[in-house]
UniProtKB/TrEMBL annotation:
UniProt entry keywords in alphabetical sequence: Chaperone, Hydrolase, Nucleotide-binding
Reaction catalysis annotation: GTP + H2O = GDP + phosphate + H(+)
CobW C-terminal domain location: 257-372
PANTHER family hit by this protein: COBW DOMAIN-CONTAINING PROTEIN DDB_G0274527 (PTHR43603), ZINC CHAPERONE YCIC (PTHR43603:SF3)
Family: Belongs to the SIMIBI class G3E GTPase family. ZNG1 subfamily.
Identification of the protein by name: GTP-binding protein
Species in which this protein is naturally found: Laceyella putida
Classification via Pfam families: cobW, CobW_C
InterPro entries: CobW-likC_sf, CobW-like_C, CobW/HypB/UreG_nucleotide-bd, P-loop_NTPase, Zn_Chap_cDPG_Synth
Length: 400
């Protein structure tokens, strides 16, 4: 039986240089029989001469899929599944290289290769092996896109009216889930700017291998047969997760990039929190975690900020809000939760990772502390506090 065919996926925002890199890699593939799948609705500009007999070029279409939690997610699942299955079964190729569209999120793509699809009866994990997830970042445009505050709809790049994703959230999703990060177009910025950008991105993505490139010139060895991909590891690779999991060590970063975890066992006053979000400190690049809101004492609120974009949504019920029997079951299954269980409030707490440049930690902590309920407010009926924060489960909120 033939061994599983390795797959590399290239992600990266529109125009970051994916096609240029793909062409370069195909040009230098040294006899490797590569099947290329371009998941793109735009014109294909892969060099036709590079395809020839030894390779194959297929196209799949981007799809919008509504997930059960109401989140609109952009995925290439179904088409991709069928195409990869077909190519793998042909037994003619040594490698599959996929260029996903600039607006696709990498996690659903990686899931396509990690789990068999019962609905379609396709078992990709038995046919191929996801070798490397590559994210290409346009080093020249990064800060512009990061701070633009624009959505894909604003840029007419969305998949439909329901696709309300922000450009910056997409960039961050792509950066936080990859094995190799290519900082492309380094010819357009100074070495110092590249050093600083790389330092920030390394904080957001500490696990990936970083490669700097100009004109898409990347050694094929860096993205083919690296064997770097592991779904569990990639899911835990984001800088904010690492910060939560590890003991904090003081930074000695020459660019002033630091991070800390804000942990409190006292709920936020929703109105004060809402007001503060409009004065979000500019030096915070990324914040992510869970909030405890006084008016939503049952639900853990997920919080995610990147640049000017802030998103909040219900993560799920606090274990302490579940019926007693369910609580016992969950705690038996996850005994580690017991370790931080509070006698009065159970697992309720705020745990927020904050990553930024030249952060004034004590100042930010003092500002956040002032948003928590005071001793007097703790004694009142919390459900009666005004709560102007978005009520829907998943809300995207552009703050000023
Ligand atoms: N100066 C410079 N230009 C580059 C570099 N890489 C790509 N380009 C140019 O940037 C533009 C976009 O590059 P593509 O390779 O088409 O980018 P892409 O990510 O495939 O774009 P989409 O398919 O639209 O998502 C093209 O005009 C390239 O010639 C680079 O490293 N430096």
């Amino acid at each position: 039986m033939q061994s599983k065919i390795p797959v590399t996926v290239l992600s990266g925002y529109l125009g970051s240089g994916k096609t240029t890199i793909l062409n370069h890699v195909l040009n230098n593939r040294q006899g490797l029989k590569v099947a290329v799948i371009v998941n793109d609705m735009s014109e294909i500009n892969i060099d036709a001469n590079l395809i020839g007999k030894e390779a194959n070029l297929s196209r799949t279409e981007e799809r919008l899929v509504e997930l059960s939690n109401g989140c609109i997610c952009c995925t290439l699942r179904e088409d991709l599944l069928k195409e990869v299955e077909r190519l793998a079964k042909e037994n003619r190729y040594d490698y599959i290289l996929i260029e996903s569209t600039g607006i696709s999120e990498p996690i659903p793509v990686a899931q396509t290769f990690t789990y068999s699809d019962e609905e379609n009866g396709i078992d990709l994990p038995s046919l191929c092996r996801l070798d490397t997830m590559v994210t290409v970042v346009d080093a020249h445009r990064f800060w512009h896109d990061f701070s633009s505050g624009e959505s894909l709809l604003d840029r007419k790049q969305a998949l439909g009216e329901e696709d309300t994703r922000d450009v910056v959230s997409l960039l961050i999703d792509q950066i936080e889930f990859c094995d190799v990060l290519i900082l492309n177009k380094c010819d357009m910025i100074s070495a110092e700017e590249a050093d600083r950008l790389e330092a920030v991105l390394r904080k957001l993505q500490p696990k990936a291998k970083f490669i700097r490139a100009a004109h898409g010139q990347v050694d094929p060895k860096e993205i083919l047969h690296t064997e770097r991909f592991d779904f569990e590891e990639a899911s835990q690779s984001a800088g904010w997760i690492k910060e939560l999991q590890t003991e904090h060590t003081p930074e000695t970063d020459e660019y002033g990039i630091t991070s800390f975890v804000y942990r409190r066992r006292r709920p936020f006053h929703p109105e004060r929190l809402n007001d503060w979000l409009y004065q979000w400190p500019e030096e915070v690049v990324r914040a992510k975690g869970m909030l405890w809101l006084a008016t939503r004492n049952e639900l853990a609120v997920q919080f995610s900020q990147a640049g000017p974009s802030i998103q909040m949504g219900a993560e799920g019920y606090w274990i302490a809000a579940m019926p007693e029997e369910e609580q016992r079951e969950v705690l038996a299954e996850y005994p580690e939760i017991q370790a931080t269980w509070d006698e009065l409030y159970g697992d309720r707490m705020t745990e927020l990772v904050i990553i930024g440049i030249d952060l004034n930690r004590s100042e930010i902590e003092a500002q956040l502390d002032a948003l928590l309920l005071t001793d007097e407010e703790m004694e009142l009926d919390w459900s009666r506090f005004p709560d102007p924060l978005p009520q829907e489960h998943i809300v995207e909120q552009e703050m000023a």
